[in-house]
Design brief:
The protein is an alpha+beta fold and 559 residues long. Helices cover 52% and strands 9% of the residues. The strands form 3 sheets. A 5-stranded antiparallel beta sheet has the order 1-2-3-5-4.
Amino acid sequence: MEKCFSNKILKLYLEGTCSEFECDKIAKHILTCDKCRTKLSELEQCTPDGLDGVLVSSDDVDDGRIPVSTCCGTMPDVTKTLETMSDGYEFLGEMPRGGQAVVYKAVQKSTKRVVAVKVLLQGTEAPKIARYRFEKEIELAASLKHSNIVTIFDSGIAQGLYFYAMEFIDGVQLDDYVQRNGFSVREIMELFLQVVAGVSYAHQKGVIHRDLKPGNILVDTSGKAHILDFGLAKVVDNDSTTFEGSIMTSITGQVLGTLAYMAPEQAIGKVDDIDVRTDIYALGVILYKLITGKYPYDISGSVLDIVRNIQENEPERPTKNVKLHSDVEIIILKSLQKLPQYRYQSAYDLYKDIESWLNGYPIAAKADNLLYIIIKLIARYRYRVSIVGLVTVIVIAFGAISIQQYLEQRFAWVAYDQLSQEAQIQEQFNESLIKKSMLNMFLIAWDKGDMQHAAEVQLSCMPIFNGDKYIKKLVLSLMEYQQLEERSVRDFYGQEYCWIASFIFAEKEQKEGDSELAIDLYEKSLEEYSNSEELGKHGYEWLVEIIRNQKHSLEVECQ
């Protein structure tokens, strides 16, 4: 077993003065050594003011606050100093004060708008890292122009004090807003979608927040969410030779941000491993707590115990605490994966899954499950079909895979014989819906070049298109599009169905990158359909709709 560390070494670790190598070695050791964790806890209790920016009491964690660093020295009389700024601002009062900064509500005299003015305590006398982060916060936040991110209006230095003026949000923090309004899961997801939209925008601009938590998200009286406090933000792929990088290499093992919302790689101070997926994890913790009222894992005990929980303990399934749709649980748990490669790879991916769930569509986290997709399609259109139509769709989707389903199918057809012409029309609608959905699924996989997935969908399509030689030929032709011969295909379809042949070759040309020719062939296909003598009799209106959509999508791309 690896030898334990002395109290002297552990104290240096707590103070953040160890070398990078030592910090990394100690951090790994204490996760498996109860003796060293006990010694660390005892040393922590002996530290009068907590640990500089890292290890603090569990009370701070429960309160959702872990200071970035301890403000050294005595604080100046900020109010008197700010009187020198009176030409630009009229100060109305102080807002909640942080460890190194104070925020005032004020009126910008030139525009008469209410703003929040954030001031760095100690000003030019503040530690170099504090001044660097404050300046970086201004730079990064000012570069972000999004309706769900607080806007920066002005910044500067007044009598040695760094300050900036930002949009004043008359609201409450995210978790309080949800709790006060007694939001349902759906309402929480709708509000949370705004937060993810803002984070996604920041990521697209190359900015990682690194301190996402309910306290840094305010919701105004209109129900609009605003992300603020980019004091710990960093630029994606930021050069490690920058001041931030050089500082961080000397304090590896220290923690920036609020511990309860940290990803495993952030909680143990692995700065080089932090990327956009670190923010995804924090979003997962936020969503978990908004819905369940709890954290995904135990955050009581010493800070080291909490770090270990974050590193090793799987989050408790949300459905153990609340009644929840399985899709929402999957979205949360995917965001909370310990390894970054298993989380959502971007905030936009998370945004799309939440949006899909809200609109009744399949979520990408389960997109490889064909059975799940069919169920979602049925659920989405359940109010537009009759009971018999619903059963028919189920039978078509699943087939007779058990005796129970066989009996349901027989019951469906007996009931169907007794329905009126309206029910027959409804059944045709259901059948067209399934055919359209299956062919669309095939075209999506085929267009992306995922031929293995396309082949799997093709096999699923065949029973649904059984008896329809024209559609089966369409699918088979696209699977072998590189060997397509125009004469043989057009001979097969003949004059009456030549429009389907034109559609096949339009898809082929789009696949090969000739967009203009593909658009012409789509148009030709629609014209040939319009001129068909059997117009309206062959039941291919759903295929015509697909052709129109394909043509429109390609035209938009070309613009």
